[in-house]
Each structure stands twice: as structure tokens, then as C-alpha cells.
Amino acid sequence: MKLPIGKEMPGNFFQFDVASVAEAISLAERFRAAGRYRYFRGQRNAKWRMQSSFARRTKKEKEEEIRKLDAFYSWVRHSPELLPYLKDDESIVATAQHHEIAATIFIDFSTEPTVAAWFATDNAIVGEYGAIFMVNPDDVSSVFKSMTESGIVMRFVQPDIANLWRLQAQHGLFLHTQTDVDGIWPFDRIVFNQTSVIPTIERRRIYPDRQSHLEQMIDQYRLLAERQENFRDLADYGVRRGAIYVRIEDPPDLTPSDLVVPKLPAVLLKTPDERWPLMDIDSAPPVLSPSELRTGGKPLREVVNMRRSSADLVTVEPDFTRHEGDSFQALLNRLWTGMRPHPYTGNQITRAVSKFACLYPAFQKFDLGKGFGLDELADSLVDDAIEIEMAIIGGGSTRAYVASGSLWQTLTEAGRDLLGFSQNPGREALMVALDPYSGGSLRLYDKRALVDLFSDQIVPWQIVVERSVAAYWPTHIATLGRP
Asked: Is CB count within 10 Å lower at the N or C end of the chain?
């Protein structure tokens, strides 16, 4: 295979000029097939210097980005039950980079020329010149190693993060460097004219339109971080206005530390470990009506089992939207996305979908935004309803109404003895007995029994009332008790 030589440019790199992005992709593919280049990066403007997002910040902005990254790092390290896949610093920084949590000193590359070309043309200005930068890591490994050892970091990082679908979709890796690459070691490149033509690749193939478990947790982190930022702003405003703030400590956990905790089966400790290329994102989901979902049973269970590796469960027809809320379809998608990766059985997910479908119509004329009447609505929908609050590992909390009898069934024998009841005392007495444990020690509960409570009541209720932070799996909560 004869390859073009290219023209040597000032700075000691080779440039290959072509007329279009299609020619650029074709040439890059030929280079890769011949083993000349293996890593590729696309830039909309060929004149832009290759710098990390962090390097492009001002000094003050860099301080803010470091604060953001430190906060995310701390959250990950304190949330091993939520994020077992982020086991090292490289994985944490890669996740922060790909989900724009903070600017980092990682520069995005791909092993796929088509992906690099997509980024080189996305939102490009017609008439400018785009570029695909290329490098063979074997050719630069010894030089980059020497530079890194001397203090100028230049190294490629290719973390394997099972649930980081965006990284997998983009066949991504990173150049870790804190320096201006063009000033140290400029890469060879293909330069092409920007036209209105873009690579024939769907956006969702680059940015998946469904979320993995990890990406759900990242969204949860964003929400919590935003709330904390708003609270800081409010506190700063109050201080400027002379307000006095009283710090309220968390209630003490009065549960004996030696309370027996049943050992969890291995299946309950299993964490989602999924990869985007193995997900079914193309097959059309079956069409079911809301009444068919409410009925549940064998037909729905068969769909659940068949679609377990699919991004979508069903298409709801007719779909409908309640007052001031998300559509039935949108909330069903959220329930499926949240539960599907966890080791629930097909029966458990089927029951959750059916329960959600039964609850949703009751909220048709209920304005969640006003927050009034929820107790009365719960009393009409849930047997002997009792509200519980769960603190989520890593921060935040969520609530749900459950049947007091079901909550009683999840207590361990030791937990029931501690509360002083050998039989279910009913809602009022149970609420009083649990009140001292509003801190909500999980040692009172059998987590194996909580799995059924989550699927049958907790998850459907969180979804139907559109809790902004939701708990989908028992091992993700730190405490459970009365609000």
C-alpha cells in the first residue's frame, strides 16, 4: 500500500493536505491499516494549538477547576459502593474529563479516525480548515518516558472503565500532559477544507443517549454539587446581611453497634459492569399500552427478560403526560435505566413497572410542584402508608411511602426485638418506635428483604413523584429511617 509522504513543516512534523473530510478519513484509515499511526484527534480549526482544557484556563479559572476536581475526587473516594469502577486516579480524571465535571490535563484522542473526524467537523465553520492529528505511540514512547521522568509529563493513558459508555463509544484514550504539545512535540496531521459535509455517524454513537449506572451517579453528583453551591451562595449572602446561622448536627445513631447484621449474598454485592458496544441500542422495543403494563404478569416479564441488555424497555402507546410533570414514557425510561443494571430478577422489575403504571394515573391531577396533599394521596394508594427517608452514600437523600407492614417485614429479628415488638404493631406505633432512629441505621433491616421493598414500593414511588435524587439499590443507601 503506497502512502503519501506529506510535506515537512516548520516544527518538524508532517502535514497532509486533502480536499474534504471524507478524503481525510480515507487517508487516516489507510495510515492505521499500514500501522503508521494508531491514535487520532480531531480539531475543528487546524490553527488551534493542542492544549488540554485546563491549560487554556486563566490562573483564577485553574484554581476553580482544581477545586471542582478535588470535590469530585473526594466524592468518588467516599462512595465506593456507588462507584466501584473508579479505582485509580486515572479513571477518576478520565471520568471528570469526559463528563466535563472539571477541566483536566488530559487531552482526548481516539483509536478511530471516523470519531476524530466527527469532532473535527462538529459545529465547524465552513471555509476554515479542520485537522486530524495522528501519532504512533510506539514511535514516541521512549521520548515521552524520558520527558515525563524529567518533569515534563507526556504520556498516553488508556483506562478501562466498564460503565463509562461515552469513553467506549468514542473509542477514547488520553494524552496526559500539562504542557503545550505543539511547543514540545507537534504531531503529524491531515488538514482538510471545512464544508457542510460531516461524517456519516449519528451523534448518539458518539454521545450515547442512554446512561450507564456510572453516568446516572455522575448526574446525581452534579445535582448535589449544584445544591451545595447554591447553599454556599445563600450562606455568603446571609453573612453579608448580618444573618446568624445555627449548625444542626446529624442525629445520633442510637442503634447498638453489635446488632446482628446478616451477611449479604454475593449476588446482592454485584455491581453493574457493562460496556457500550455490548448494549442493544438498535432493536425497536415492543409496543405496550399503559393498561398492559399495569396488568404485568407473564407477557411483561417476558419483555423484561428479553430486553435486559437493551437501552429501552417498551414504547408506550398511547403515551400521556400528567399536570406539571414528565410523561409516562419518560418516567418509565428512568425506572428502567435505574433498575436494569442491578441484579434484580425479571419478576422484581416486572412488579416495579406494574406498580409504577398503577400509581401514575393517580397523579394525573396532582401538582407535585405545590407539595400539598402528598400524605393524603399516599394514604389512598398505600396500605397503612409510612414515609421513610434514605441517605444515599456519597451525599443526598430521597424519600418514599411504603406500607408499614412491608417495612416491618424487612426488619431483622434483632431489629424487632430492639424496637420492642414481636409482631407488627401498625403504622402509628411503628412510627413512634422508629422515631429515635430517625438517623436510620441499616443494622435494623435485612438488606435481602429490602431488595423486594425497593422493587415493589420504594423505586416506583420515587419515580412517580419525580424525586430528583433516587436510590435504586439497597447497598447504595447509608441510612433508612423516619424523616
From this structure: N
